[in-house]
């Protein structure tokens, strides 16, 4: 059983389209994500050279995490490269909901300049999937590839400015991201989009205000969501996250990109990271 939802509509003026004269060529293939080796004994949701849904040829694995995998694929109808993100339909015996929420939020955000363009989404018997535009390596990897392991003030300024704009769009529709960091920021790969930052991974979003503008009632103690290195002090203290906390993560991102690393990079315990963050704001 397969269900697919196509959301790209060429008649919809809000949908970002790749210019036709750019469809067949990249501005710079060096910015494409590097293929990752698939170990023989590792289970893989999609197989190399597989024709997924008889439409997309799987070229390689470009991302892998605890929640799923991201593949580089080619649309055999249009000859365009795309990214396919998949997750198992069930996790620990329960229906996986992370990508379902991510699909919902990204659908609401289509037409905004700093969100990936989605070509379709759906599920099969075993996986949930999203088919999206292919993007560059992430900002964190860009920093690592730089000889001095940091980015210029000008580059960081542009990244942060666009990150704030991207988060404003997300906050406007009522959600907080909860995992803002360099690894979740990329750029387009075509001449028209190579200077446009794209915010990724909406799997940890949470609605903080309702459609009528009223804020949700805050929990007395929220679960920890995010990446320890970049979360705010409030998140360490298990406070309910709000747009403020996304902005703090942007600040830590800027610090890391400018200086090369955060002061707590080599600390392993969350409590130690919290103590150092608190020390930095005591005057």
UniProtKB/TrEMBL annotation:
Residues 20-33 have a biased composition (Basic and acidic residues). Residues 1-33 are annotated as: Disordered. GO terms for molecular function: ATP binding; protein serine/threonine kinase activity. The keyword Kinase applies. Its EC number is 2.7.11.1. It is an enzyme of class 2 (transferase). Keywords: ATP-binding, Kinase, Nucleotide-binding, Serine/threonine-protein kinase, Transferase. The keyword Manganese does not apply. SMART domains: S_TKc. Pfam families: Pkinase. PROSITE patterns: PROTEIN_KINASE_ATP, PROTEIN_KINASE_DOM, PROTEIN_KINASE_ST. ATP binds at residue 85. InterPro entries: CK1_Ser-Thr_kinase, Kinase-like_dom_sf, Prot_kinase_dom, Protein_kinase_ATP_BS, Ser/Thr_kinase_AS. Residues 56-283 form the Protein kinase domain. Residues 8-19 have a biased composition (Polar residues). Belongs to the protein kinase superfamily. This is non-specific serine/threonine protein kinase. It comes from Caenorhabditis nigoni. The lineage of its organism: Eukaryota, Metazoa, Ecdysozoa, Nematoda, Chromadorea.
């Amino acid at each position: 059983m397969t269900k697919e939802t196509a959301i790209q509509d060429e008649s919809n003026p809000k949908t970002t389209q790749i210019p036709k004269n750019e469809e067949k060529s990249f501005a710079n293939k060096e910015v494409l994500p590097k293929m990752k080796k698939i170990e023989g004994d590792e289970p893989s949701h999609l197989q190399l050279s597989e024709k997924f849904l008889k439409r997309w040829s799987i070229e390689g694995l470009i991302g892998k995490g605890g929640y799923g995998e991201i593949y580089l694929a080619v649309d055999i109808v249009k000859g365009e490269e795309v990214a396919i993100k998949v997750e198992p339909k069930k996790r620990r015996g329960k229906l996986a909901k992370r990508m379902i929420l991510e699909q919902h939020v990204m659908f609401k955000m289509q037409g905004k300049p700093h969100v990936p363009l989605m070509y379709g989404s759906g599920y099969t018997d075993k996986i949930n999937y999203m088919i999206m535009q292919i993007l560059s390596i992430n900002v964190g990897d860009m920093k690592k590839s730089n000889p001095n392991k940091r980015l210029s003030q000008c580059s960081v300024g542009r990244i942060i400015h666009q990150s704030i704009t991207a988060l404003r769009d997300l906050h406007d529709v009522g959600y907080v991201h909860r995992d803002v960091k360099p690894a979740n920021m990329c750029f387009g790969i075509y001449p028209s989009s190579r200077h446009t930052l794209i915010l990724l991974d909406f799997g940890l979003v949470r609605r903080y205000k309702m459609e009528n503008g009223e804020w949700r009632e805050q929990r007395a103690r929220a679960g920890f969501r995010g990446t320890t290195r970049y979360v705010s002090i409030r998140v360490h203290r298990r406070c309910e996250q709000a747009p403020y906390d996304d902005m703090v993560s942007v600040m830590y991102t800027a610090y890391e990109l400018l200086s090369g690393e955060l002061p707590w990079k080599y600390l392993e315990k969350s409590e130690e990271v919290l103590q150092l963050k608190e020390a930095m704001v005591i005057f």
